[in-house]
Amino acid sequence: MSVFARDLLADDTEAAARRLVGARLARGSGPEAPVGRIVEVEAYIGQEDLASHARVGRTQRNAVMFGPPGAAYVYLVYGMHHCLNVVTETEGRPAAVLIRAVQPVAGANEMRSARLRWIGSHPGRGLTAERAITAEQARRRLEALPVDRLASGPGLVCAAFSIDRRDDGRDLCDPSSELRLEIGAEDEPLPVAVGPRIGIEYAPEPWLSRPWRFYVPGNASLSTATGRGRRGVAS
After folding, report:
1. I need a labelling partner for 69 at 20 to 30 A (CA). Which of 96, 114, 126, 168 fits?
2. Which own/partner pairs from 177-181 qualify as long-range (CB within 8 Å, at least 24 positions apart)?
């Protein structure tokens, strides 16, 4: 493995997003350490992008977006789900790529355990009391879940890799970092399709329809929302 080069993130965000498809996300080290290939991302570019957190200007929450490329921008949604973004472009220009889905290649047992720990710390997972599931039910569901579905959504990526706000600002291009991006020397390039971003209905056009989601068509680890989104095109 080699660390993902910061230069590959420092220019155009769309180009950076394409390069991140197929890169590896890794946490920790050792045979049980979770590692997976990134198979779905979304780009958020500048304050002019009305789907981006940067549209409101610099705040305490989004300050990392204005920093150097390669930093992790981690935020919380719905009071419970963390999302991981990779900061791109030059310092002062707020742009980032959201990691939507990762296909596990190592450490699946740790990913299952991490997701179970997450469920344990979020009783009911925000559901009503009638729909809340017990820890034992959650354990059984996770044991039956295919490996490819362990990190098949932005919140699931963070749960599977134990990512939270403590990782906000972490340097993902530092080879000694606990959480980092890597390139596998023998990894084959993956095909990339493009389409509109998902879950940004609040954004007006043209931002709603920008083809800034990049993903591996047909991959088993794509986020569950992908199938419900508008169809992308091969690129």
Report:
1. 114
2. 178/27, 178/28, 179/25, 179/26, 179/27, 179/72, 180/3, 180/4, 180/25, 180/26, 181/3, 181/4, 181/20, 181/23, 181/24, 181/25, 181/26, 181/70, 181/86
